[in-house]
């Protein structure tokens, strides 16, 4: 019998978190590439983002399968159980993140056919950079089980919201100014919304990390911007 | 392992000789005395025991030796190959792997100092994915490990305050025996090359776009002066003064663009010297006194004594930050108001960008790489101008960006001041925060093209705009004696 197919319990757990980190790296790259495709009007890059999304789906399924197998065969307890469950949950969040990135790439294909709107795409780029850094921080927190970083990500989501609200108004002004841009602007609006949701997924992952490390949920409410004028 | 010499090697035959000699004595002596028998027996036993123990240590040393260790010597007496690699300025990694589908089996078995710094590693080894997540790099490593393919990959280290670009070469390393496979990764910093490329494009685009307007107006006036205004004295004087103003503007623009390019070029090289912020504030206030007096604006300074609390930084650049922020504040401060400059020590970064006090909106325009325990010296410049509405805040430090409704103003500016501030602070690994309360009158003017709001009575609502520049301190200063308040009261004019 091949000795490598028999793994110890610890190795299986390590494998699980290694795959989550790998998946995180992939999702990170998807978001960064999708935003770059928007900024540079790069059709080829957008298409490769769309294609690569499948890999994320496969990884998510794989992680889920492995986690269920681990729960079924090894009956993990306490921190091991939390590790398994949070790996599964984070994988789901990452898969959603990848879907949103794919959606941004798809929309970038549409707006690359219309006139360039450098002001708006620059805003998307800036927001994308912010969201990417959030994603990077949360993955760093996951791999090192660093609670303080997770906490920082969790409590600073309003910044992304702020950017989203700013973009919303900017787009409204644009569309009112020139109704011909409405269809392109709507796509840009959805891109901004997608980025904002990626930011939300990052905070969710921060919550899972907190749960994995401490076994407790966050008690207090997350600071939120509620001022959403029509 | 040809150069490996176990320390006990010579004792093994010695033990064997002793044991053999004991046997010979036993066999050779015909009349067997008890004490000779005991002596020879002890000899044999001692010989066997020493043989056994030496052999055991030899085997232990052999077994403890890691199989993948690279132990090629450059010279018999020279430094080991690992030491040479460790001292290299370029990041070097050696990665091992067992099976293609086992990600948890890829380990970093060697990393030099530069690589440890680049990937923020705490140890020289460890799980590969915990340091490198970039999918392209991981793919290149896999190809080297299992496909025997060498190739180069471009990747960027994003997310930090400064982007850096790296080129990585991955190639397989030959290993004999065991199922383990090794791959080598060498990285080289390509940031400068990429930056120069991008900067040239940016500079050309910005310069040509922004210089076109004043240039068009210049050539228009030249045409007029050549044509029908040729002999009109009054018109000539008027046109010439407008042309001079436009030429001034072009000059300022070029200066700003050049200094921005210079700062951007060095943005990824952190400053090394020490700078004194209170002193910089004092210098700036001294130089702007006349301008403030002309505008009827007072400047108030709250700062600790100069010379006691330095930060890490470039003196001239910090001076420029304070200068640009104060210039800006003076531009928007209405007559008779006060521009407040504060220097605060031992400040932490504000956690979230949640709305600050009351209706003020706050946004971090530049966030430094996270280091949660860092403390900063803060320069806060506040003017009581009309304020900036929240939706305009995120774009503030962009080049040539102007808040809507301010474009038509007769402010002397190039639109690069805050961009320069942001890049300088980014180089210093600091942060930039803007806070503002805008008047309600301005907010209600949404939709219709708003006229300048400065003319409205702004005193009823305390509108303000405050920029805070955060510079990292070397250490915490702790108990600070409350600094003297340098109030330039003599500047105060009542409008």
UniProtKB/TrEMBL annotation, chain A:
<keyword id="KW-0963">Cytoplasm</keyword>
<keyword id="KW-0813">Transport</keyword>
<dbReference type="GO" id="GO:0030643">
    <property type="term" value="P:intracellular phosphate ion homeostasis"/>
</dbReference>
<feature type="domain" description="PhoU">
    <location>
        <begin position="22"/>
        <end position="107"/>
    </location>
</feature>
<feature type="domain" description="PhoU">
    <location>
        <begin position="124"/>
        <end position="208"/>
    </location>
</feature>
<dbReference type="GO" id="GO:0005737">
    <property type="term" value="C:cytoplasm"/>
</dbReference>
<dbReference type="GO" id="GO:0006817">
    <property type="term" value="P:phosphate ion transport"/>
</dbReference>
<comment type="similarity">
    <text>Belongs to the PhoU family.</text>
</comment>
<dbReference type="InterPro" id="IPR028366">
    <property type="entry name" value="PhoU"/>
</dbReference>
<comment type="subunit">
    <text>Homodimer.</text>
</comment>
<dbReference type="GO" id="GO:0045936">
    <property type="term" value="P:negative regulation of phosphate metabolic process"/>
</dbReference>
<dbReference type="Pfam" id="PF01895">
    <property type="entry name" value="PhoU"/>
</dbReference>
<dbReference type="InterPro" id="IPR026022">
    <property type="entry name" value="PhoU_dom"/>
</dbReference>
<dbReference type="InterPro" id="IPR038078">
    <property type="entry name" value="PhoU-like_sf"/>
</dbReference>
<protein>
    <recommendedName>
        <fullName>Phosphate-specific transport system accessory protein PhoU</fullName>
    </recommendedName>
</protein>
<comment type="function">
    <text>Plays a role in the regulation of phosphate uptake.</text>
</comment>
<keyword id="KW-0592">Phosphate transport</keyword>
UniProtKB/TrEMBL annotation, chain B:
<feature type="transmembrane region" description="Helical">
    <location>
        <begin position="12"/>
        <end position="29"/>
    </location>
</feature>
<keyword id="KW-0067">ATP-binding</keyword>
<keyword id="KW-0472">Membrane</keyword>
<dbReference type="GO" id="GO:0016036">
    <property type="term" value="P:cellular response to phosphate starvation"/>
</dbReference>
<dbReference type="InterPro" id="IPR004358">
    <property type="entry name" value="Sig_transdc_His_kin-like_C"/>
</dbReference>
<keyword id="KW-0547">Nucleotide-binding</keyword>
<dbReference type="InterPro" id="IPR036097">
    <property type="entry name" value="HisK_dim/P_sf"/>
</dbReference>
<protein>
    <recommendedName>
        <fullName>histidine kinase</fullName>
        <ecNumber>2.7.13.3</ecNumber>
    </recommendedName>
</protein>
<dbReference type="GO" id="GO:0005524">
    <property type="term" value="F:ATP binding"/>
</dbReference>
<dbReference type="InterPro" id="IPR005467">
    <property type="entry name" value="His_kinase_dom"/>
</dbReference>
<dbReference type="InterPro" id="IPR003661">
    <property type="entry name" value="HisK_dim/P_dom"/>
</dbReference>
<keyword id="KW-0902">Two-component regulatory system</keyword>
<keyword id="KW-1003">Cell membrane</keyword>
<dbReference type="Pfam" id="PF00512">
    <property type="entry name" value="HisKA"/>
</dbReference>
<dbReference type="InterPro" id="IPR003594">
    <property type="entry name" value="HATPase_dom"/>
</dbReference>
<dbReference type="GO" id="GO:0004721">
    <property type="term" value="F:phosphoprotein phosphatase activity"/>
</dbReference>
<keyword id="KW-0597">Phosphoprotein</keyword>
<keyword id="KW-0418">Kinase</keyword>
<keyword id="KW-1133">Transmembrane helix</keyword>
<dbReference type="Pfam" id="PF02518">
    <property type="entry name" value="HATPase_c"/>
</dbReference>
<dbReference type="GO" id="GO:0005886">
    <property type="term" value="C:plasma membrane"/>
</dbReference>
<feature type="domain" description="Histidine kinase">
    <location>
        <begin position="206"/>
        <end position="460"/>
    </location>
</feature>
